[in-house]
Amino acid sequence: MTSVRTRRERSRRPIDEYLLSEHQLEEMYYYILLARRLNERMLALNRQGRAAFVIAGAGQEAAQVGAAMALQKGVDFVAPYYRDLGVNLVLGMTAREAMLNLLGKRDDPNSHGRQMPAHWGSVARRVVTQSSVVTTQFPHAVGIALAAKLCKDPIVVMASCGEGSTSRGDFHESLNFAAIHHLPVIFFVENNGYAISERTEKEMPLEHVADRARGYGMQSAVVDGMDGIAVYQTVRPAVDQARRGGGPFLIEAKCYRLWPHSSDDDDSRYRPKKELEEWSRKDPVKLFRERVESDGIFPREDLDEIERRVEEEVREAAQWALMQPDPEPEDALTFVYREA
Ligand SMILES: Cc1ncc(C[n+]2csc(CCOP(=O)(O)OP(=O)(O)O)c2C)c(N)n1
Ligand SMILES: [Mg+2]
Fold this sequence. Notes:
Distance between the termini: 42 Å
Number of domains: 1
Bound molecules: thiamine diphosphate, magnesium ion
Shape: globular
Strand order of the largest sheet: 3-4-5-9-8
CATH architecture: 3-Layer(aba) Sandwich
CATH topology: Rossmann fold
Number of strands: 9
Number of helices: 11
Strand content: 5-15%
Structural class: alpha/beta
């Protein structure tokens, strides 16, 4: 995080009840807010006809940021899913890069405009490139963890997905294999209540995805995914344990998808307005701000200052990215076939 410079230096000493320092709490707010403001600008660009497709993480930012902050950046591997903008920002993706990705620009570091938006991938940040087919990132994550174990490399792999994706075979095979071989994987499930238009009751016969772990002899936890601090406090010990050889862990973060599935669907056709209003009161951006302000961690002016900086960063990133070159049509097959 280079762009946030508030008036005073933040302490790096952990605050007891938080397990996080002032510095980390400021980072957490910055990333949660940056993810939200980027997604808002992306949707505006879509409605202006400048961006073809948006699939956003509104309502899941605190879960994503809290979980990613528990990892060692550039050391641990991450196999994310499409909503995980917040995860990628924590790992080092900039606002400009996020906009390049949205617009399918030549210099998008994820796929240089070859994949759909929100299909993340970065060799340097150890983010595994992903497929549109949900949950295929799980066997990849488990394979990386197996290699790390064989090489005695003390890394952790985090694989994430939505709750609907946990009904696929890839999910179950991955949990089974990781548990048998005691692999350092964190399975992070962002349960946002829906798989497109299907409610969770139609996706699985259980209330908690976390209960599925027991069938594989794996430890699991359920956490309030609207609370970034609680997510960090749950994921961090699981990551530390996995790194020490303690095996895999499944964490289910209960969140809510505050926006439609994507820029292309009308959620009023499948979910009650009242439900959305109730969950909106737990908006993770609002919750975080209220908590650190009422606990006296940051004065209101400091939080306002972070907001102003984030808004400026997003505005600048969008303007800049719109001016960047599109890929050359003749480059469409580069990296697809071996060059003779
Ligand atoms: C194997 C497969 N089936 C169906 C789809 C179409 N699809 C894309 S996203 C999605 C919903 C997934 O829901 P969930 O896992 O809960 O994630 P969420 O979008 O709610 O974050 C579906 C069905 C797909 N991409 N891959
Ligand atoms: Mg879902």
